[in-house]
Each structure stands twice: as C-alpha cells, then as structure tokens.
Recover the amino acids of this structure.
C-alpha cells in the first residue's frame, strides 16, 4: 500500500494527560522530599531547592548570585579542583543555578554513584568556604561577561525591559554591573550562605527512585540541622513601573536595533493565565505565529521574532523581542502594534485557533518524555502554588476556549497604554 502524503493523518483532541506525579516524603529532620520514580535507565537527578537564596532575598546586590555560584569552589574538606575532579570521576553533571526567586543545586548521575555524590551535596550545603582567591577569579570572569553582554543590544534590551517594568532597584528589575561585582566581598557571601542557604532547603529527586535512594537521602541530608523559614512576600512589586512608555538607548554606530515590547502580567495561578498563554501563542509564541508570518515571512524585516510570558513567583510579564536593521526599527514596531490591535479588534479564525490548540497540546505531551522533564513540570506547579490539576485545566481550556473569549481577553489586557517599548540602537 502506497501512503498518500497529500492526505493529513487523522487527529483528535487530547482531553486528558496522566503524568507520573511527585510523591511527598519527609526526612527525619523535616526536610521535604518530592520524588518521581520514572524511567527505564538507572539514572538519578537530584535538585536541592534553596527557597530563600534568590536575588529577591539579598540585601547586598550580587550576594545571591556569587554565593550560589561559589558553593562548589571549596569546602572544609576539598578544594575547588577536588570538588570538580570528584564529580568528573563519576561521570556526573553538577549545576549551580542562581535565580530571582530561588536558587538550586542540581546533580545528575548513575544510580550506583548516588551515595558519594549525596555526601558531596551535603558538604556544599554545610561546609562551603568561599575562598578569597576563587572569588576574585569568579568576579573577574563575571566582569568580563558583563562587558561582552553589554556589547550585545539584545541582552541590554532584555535587561532594560525588566528595569522599565519593575524598576532598576526592585529585585525583579535590578541587574549586576561591573561596579557592583567589584564590591562583592567574601564576608557578604558567608553571611548570605549562613542566613539563606545552609539550613533551609528542599529536595526534588527523579529517575529510578526507590527505597535505597530515599535511605541514602536520609543518611546524608536527613541528619543535617535545618531551620525552616517562610519566604517573605514582596510588597508594591509594580510600584516602580515606568511612567514613560518608550525608552531608547541610542547606539548610532550599531547596524542593528534590538526591540522589546512588553507589558505587566499576573502570576501563573491567575484565572486568565492559561487563556493568556493561548493568546500569546497566536501572537508570537511559535514559528507559525502572526508576528512571524507578518514581520519575518511577509515583510522580511527580521530573521525571527517571538513573544513569551515570563512567570515569576510574585509577578509575570509578556515580552515581544526581535532584532532588525536600524533603518527598519520603526517599520517593525508599527507591524508589532498592528498585530496587537488586530487581536483586540478581530476574532481569530477557527482554523488558526485549532492549529494553535493542537500545537500547544502536542508541546505539553512532548515535554514530559523523561523523568527529569517530569521533575521540571512538578517544579512549574509547586513553586507557583498549583497542583497537578493545572495540567487538566490546561487541556480543558485548550479544548473549550473560543475565539470570542480570546478577543475579549486581548481587549481587556492589550490596550495601548499597557505596553512599554525598549529600543537599543536607533529608530533610523
């Protein structure tokens, strides 16, 4: 039988997804463990969540970033080289993740090496020493990275958009500068470590998690002293929202301009969060989006343009981004605002909406194909005060939402006065 490739294969809506769920467990010292037993390979992913180690918890700018990054730069028993060599000797992968809301330590390894690597993680949690010489090396590296990134208009524009929305001194809006990096001291890192990391954490473990792995967690983590502290909520997150809608950082010698158009949004547990994701996907959230079709394919103004929703624990925002030749800056902005206005003023065609729904449902299914991906999905709900019911709600909204509802949503949120514009380059 010859396959007729001119006829698309049959499809049907996805109404339900059954995800292996994280199970709760507590170590004897009260540390919460969330574990997902999944996968056929003997691999384990362990993530230590540090809920009070994010940028929003620091009093000295840079202490969160450098404390997190330096956890593996030496302990009371090992040098930085010794830590790195130990991880490499087991073929493991160690990653230190600073962030705005929280920080984390991740390690991925074969199951048979969990014992010695958990011992190392316990060292990093309780015995990190932040050697002065390693700090100076890291500061020099970071200063060089800042200098390089400040030459990239796209990076500068993204930083500037956060500062416009939140204010450059608000935790979600501030960024590290060369001067601030130079001011970071070892004592500020030790202080941040003692107050925000060394006795306050949670564990997410995924892969072939069985009783043996839980026993090893108890052996190495369950014996540590802990001090559970609730995270203090920020107040007046939008108090420093810019009074000016348009912001230009001129770079007349650059051939390109980087454009960011953004607006404040809500947290992930807001009733409009999932419908807004549908609307954003139509606008610029995938390769077949309206922004791509218009500005890339029809007008040829850019190689690529996107819109995305950034979810933070206490806020969110939507941002459209692209890079264009500087003489095309105003043309690209005109088309961006045109597409936003069309979503406010005209209903979305049924065929286009169904295409977006299918794309989003498919993306959900393909994003949970490994135990580590399942752990990421758990984090995406747990850290935003959601439950696994979110994924069923997600599919329900995809199946039920109508074009009229999306137009009403666009009319409610996509008003001109809600948008802020950042251009790094020039308008001509």
């Amino acid at each position: 039988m010859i396959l007729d490739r001119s006829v698309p294969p049959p499809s049907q809506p996805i109404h339900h997804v059954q995800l292996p769920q994280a199970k709760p467990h507590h170590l004897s010292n009260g540390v919460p463990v969330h574990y997902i037993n999944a996968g056929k390979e003997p691999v384990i992913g362990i993530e230590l969540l540090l809920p009070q180690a994010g940028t929003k918890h620091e009093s000295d700018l840079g202490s969160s970033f450098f404390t997190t990054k330096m956890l593996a730069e030496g302990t009371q028993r090992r040098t930085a080289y010794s830590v790195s060599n130990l991880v490499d000797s087991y073929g493991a992968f160690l990653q230190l993740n600073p962030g705005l809301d929280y920080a984390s330590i991740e390690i991925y390894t074969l199951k048979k090496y969990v014992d010695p690597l958990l011992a190392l993680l316990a060292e990093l949690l309780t015995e990190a020493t932040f050697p002065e010489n390693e700090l100076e090396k890291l500061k020099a590296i970071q200063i060089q990275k800042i200098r390089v990134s400040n030459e990239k208009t796209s990076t500068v524009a993204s930083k500037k958009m956060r500062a416009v929305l939140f204010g450059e001194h608000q935790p979600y809006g501030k960024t590290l500068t060369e001067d601030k990096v130079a001011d970071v001291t070892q004592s500020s890192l030790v202080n941040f470590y003692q107050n925000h990391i060394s006795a306050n954490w949670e564990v997410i473990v995924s892969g072939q998690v069985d009783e043996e792995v839980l026993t090893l967690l108890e052996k190495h983590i369950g014996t540590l002293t802990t001090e559970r502290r609730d995270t203090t909520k920020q107040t007046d997150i939008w108090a420093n929202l810019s009074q000016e809608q348009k912001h230009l950082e001129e770079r007349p010698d650059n051939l390109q301009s980087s454009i960011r158009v953004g607006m404040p949004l809500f947290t992930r547990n807001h009733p409009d969060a999932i419908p807004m994701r549908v609307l954003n996907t139509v606008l610029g959230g995938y390769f077949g989006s309206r922004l791509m079709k218009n500005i890339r394919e029809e007008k040829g103004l850019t190689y690529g343009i996107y819109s995305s929703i950034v979810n933070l624990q206490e806020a969110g925002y939507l941002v459209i981004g692209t890079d264009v030749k500087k003489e095309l800056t105003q043309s690209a902005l005109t088309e961006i605002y045109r597409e936003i206005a069309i979503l406010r003023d005209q209903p979305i065609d049924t065929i286009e909406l169904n295409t977006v729904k299918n794309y989003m449902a498919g993306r959900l299914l393909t994003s949970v194909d490994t135990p580590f991906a399942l752990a990421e999905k758990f984090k995406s709900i747990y850290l935003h005060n959601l439950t696994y019911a979110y994924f069923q709600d997600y599919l329900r909204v995809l199946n039920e939402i109508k074009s009229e509802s999306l137009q009403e949503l666009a009319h409610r949120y996509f008003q001109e006065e809600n948008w802020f514009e950042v251009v790094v380059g020039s308008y001509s």
